Amino acid sequence: MTTTTPTTRLAPSPTGALHLGNARTFLINWALAVQNNWHIVLRIDDLDTPRTKSGADQQAIEDLTWLGMNWHTGPVYQSDDLAPYHDALTALAARALIYPCTATRNEILAAASAPHSDEHEIHYPAINRPPSPAPFTFKPVTDQNTAYRLIVPDTPTPFTDTRLGPQSVNVQQQVGDFVVAAKSGLPAYQLATVVDDARQNITHIVRGDDLLRSTARQLILYHALNLQPIPTYTHLPLVLGPDGRRLAKRHGDTRIAFYRDRGVPPQRLLGLLAEYCGIGPRAPLTPQDFASRFDIAKLPTDPITFTDRDHRWLCDE
Ligand code: GLU
Q1: Which of 54, 168, 174, 209 has its CA 20 to 30 A from that of 292?
Q2: What average pLDDT does range 204-230 have in this prediction?
Q3: Could you tell me the distance, in angstroms and rounded to a whole number, from the CA of residue 12 to the centre of ligand 1?
Q4: Do 83-236 and 7-80+237-314 fall under one CATH topology?
Q5: How does pLDDT run across 20-65, given as a tens digit for each residue?
Q6: Local structure of 285: helix, strand or coil
Q7: Closest residue by CA, ligand 1 atom 3
Q8: Atom of ligand 1 at shortest distance to CA of 207?
Q9: What's residue 2's pLDDT?
């Protein structure tokens, strides 16, 4: 693989089971990779302790495989090698771009997870930043309430999403100096993602549009760390439950494993997901057919709602 090989990643967090919503995002990512000959890395984003669940990594791998997806590299576990994250934090500290601060336990826990909603995001005012941040030697601290924050400029960060067009976010106004590492030096989601995307040579990121908010933060980190290649970003509308909220456990059991255990064939799930992608009407479909028929231009722009009728169709009731 050369540095110019177009590469994407499937990056499940083993914090819960794959359901119809995130399976659809992975499937679209995979289909785009197949259509465009991208190299695929399977990365297990397992730094989000204590939310990671034992066995959820294997379950995600089984679910992706059962639906017909494949990859060229991995699974690569983030927790297997923490040195690259420490190196990045060391570089940021040496350039006085981060500073230690006290944070609440909830803030520290939240920073470990990809922010799938803005509900728990707290704006951290720049007035809490040290008046003249100085370079220091990064050493993880062990006290429970210390985190490291990145000095975020008070300027817009522009980028272009391949579907949504030009975007611009002033991260200082949005969240302020955000957490890049928690106590003990465990990297926060934003830092771990950028360090890995860069070292895995990821050129194409495809993910749910709830992470659109994170993209400007990640680009600031690319620039602060002087990393390449800067990926292109494609954010996809989510699957929602009947109440209009992101599909989750509260909407009943929509886990891939639930349908698999009930004997629903993967082609049936692919058929429903194909309809959710605008290439319906729903009818059983092989993964190869899904990949060849998928057309990003036909992807509905509005979120998709999962209904009881969909559930009954899957179960052939
Ligand atoms: N692993 C993250 C999640 O499932 C997604 C990371 C990303 O696509 O940036 O929430």
Answers
A1: 209
A2: 97
A3: 6
A4: yes
A5: 999 999 999 999 999 999 999 999 999 988 889 999 999 999 999 9
A6: coil
A7: 13
A8: 8
A9: 53
Give the whole-angstrom CA distance, residue 269 versus residue 282: 9
Ordered by start, the domain boundaries in the chain are 7-80+237-314, 83-236
Q: CATH classification of 7-80+237-314 is 3.40.50.620, yes or no?
A: yes
Q: What is the layout of strands, in order, in the sheet containing 156-161?
A: 73-77, 39-44, 7-10, 204-208, 232-236, 156-161, 165-170
Closest ligand 1 atom to Cα of 193: 9
Q: Which of 34-43, 127-136, 139-148, 301-310 has the lowest mean pLDDT?
A: 139-148
9 C-alpha to center of ligand 1: Å?
Answer: 10
Tell me the pLDDT tens digit for each residue of 114-138: 888 766 678 888 888 999 999 999 9
Q: Which numbered atom of ligand 1 lies nearest the CA of 9?
A: 8
Alpha helices in 37-139 (DSSP H): 56-67, 83-94, 105-112
Distance of CA 11 from the midpoint of ligand 1 (Å): 6
CATH 3.40.50.1260 fits 83-236, yes or no: no
Question: Looking at ligand 1, which residue's alpha carbon is closest to its atom 5?
Answer: 11
CA 184 to ligand 1 centroid distance, Å: 22
Q: Is the dihedral of CA 259, 264, 267, 273 positive or negative?
A: negative
219-252 burial, b at 16+ Cβ within 10 Å, e below that, comes to: bbbbebbeeebebbbbbbbbbbbeeeebbeeebe
